[in-house]
Amino acid sequence: MKTIMKARACIRKEYSVLFLCLAVAVLILVLRNMEVLKTSSQFQHEVNSTIMAPRVSTDPDVHRGFCTFQPLSPEDALEERLLLDSIAWPETPLLPTPLILEQTSDPAHSTFTILPGRGGGQWHVGDQLEVRINMADFQGRPKKSGGDLLLARLHNQTLGAGVAGQVVDHLNGSYSAVFSLLWEGDAQVEVMLAHPSEAITVLKRLKSEEPDRISHKSLFRSGSLSETTSCNVCLRPTQQPLCNHTDLRTGNPWFCYKPKKLSCDARIDHAKGTYNQTFKATEEKLFQSGVNMKVYIRASGPANVTVLPKKEGQPEVESSTVKVGPSGYYYQGVWQALSGTKVRQFNAAAISQCLKGKVVHMHGDSTIRQFFEFLNAALPGLKEFDLHSQRVAGPFMALDYANNILVKFRFHSPPIQSPPVLTSKLRYIANEIDDLIGGTDTVVVFGIWAHFATYPMQIYIRRLQSIRRAVVRLLDRAPGTVVVIRTGTPRDVTLIYNDWHSLQCYKVLRTMFKGLNVHLIDAWEMVLAHHLPHNVHPPRPIIENMINVFLSYTCPQKGG
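^ thats the sequence. predicted structure below, dont judge the formating
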């Protein structure tokens, strides 16, 4: 009897375990089926309104642990690493605290010298001119390391001529600037210290420690309740949970601190916040206009040469000792491309003829909005619709009914520094491109760079990767679509933004879209080569030349 009772107890125990396992399996199956039954709209709502606890990333490249990045595919991760390596800046000095300004790069004590060249002091059109730059500190002592950001230009203002120089850092306090000689007559050298190497040490630190130093905010509202919280790509961990507003289609990240009494879905607008950065003792002395930022360096001898006519049989431009030659130059105030599509000049009638029957989609920042404003002012038949848009961010739309021309502009999605704009009006460039049918009657123009100045370069690279994927898809389904990309530029003096960041964005953008059937407006060189002062919003003569480049791509000369 005892044996039978023990057997029954064992059987009951085995059945209990079996039933428990079956119950767990059924529960898992039900939960999985419930997940599958969610509609895509429910899924999107869930992700967009996710409340997140602040996370600290384990990625060693993530800055100070509060920039959160989605994992990349192996191909994109490799590209990101190669791009970061390609723009790696030469080692810049560690700074003592407090900083000793006298030991830093001083343009007033630095000089440049024109080297004799192969012709022994004679230069012809098609030759190259090389200049040696020697940097010194405020006490006149030669610098022993590189890392200064130098900009160089060769020009003749009487002829309205100018070309950007290519600067090579020899990492020992000396630099070379190489210029292509492209016109006859006088050619004067200008070398400018944009930032001393010590300032770039500070800019590197700020990018790493304070990528959130430009803040953003959003208003959340439901009924009579409203609350404003801070938003950014990178938000510092606090006890306050985060709303995840990362874009589902592109994966571009954006977060806000969750309101105390409202849900994440109650976000209705986006606006610029404040600007805060922390300089260590005396570091701000490295950013003094007229002292060590955007200051011309003097010549130790002659600053100009006379260029003779081209020798018979000599190529138009001598093969360069630097990796990349200029993309073009100015002559008589007109931009001349050195390769590819011939740049034509367009008056109002020619612009209307070129754009007749076309839809022009413009996306990006205020430097692309300048294109919209130019066309809107230049074409009498183009009339802007009042979309009751915010005047900085848009969107804007103008129509020339007689010529069937439609021109549209929309600001790119955050990060943007703008007055309050409804989140319903914000669009990611990649999503906008994916929504286009495309074709020979479609032109896409975009530019994106200026609003990424304070962020880790990974954020900019990933934004461009999402845009490039959309461009590839567009050109696959509609190969006749014209795609034009405007680069960033040197800009006016400011502590918030800097030419070092702009140059890195310029290099990354050129590399990422190389080899695609797209066209580049080399705004960097077009501003650098011109005699007018650097400005994030270049003046009309430069914009007019950019528009001529854009239209020459849109309507290339037959046989040209």
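The first strand starts at residue 51 and ends at 52.
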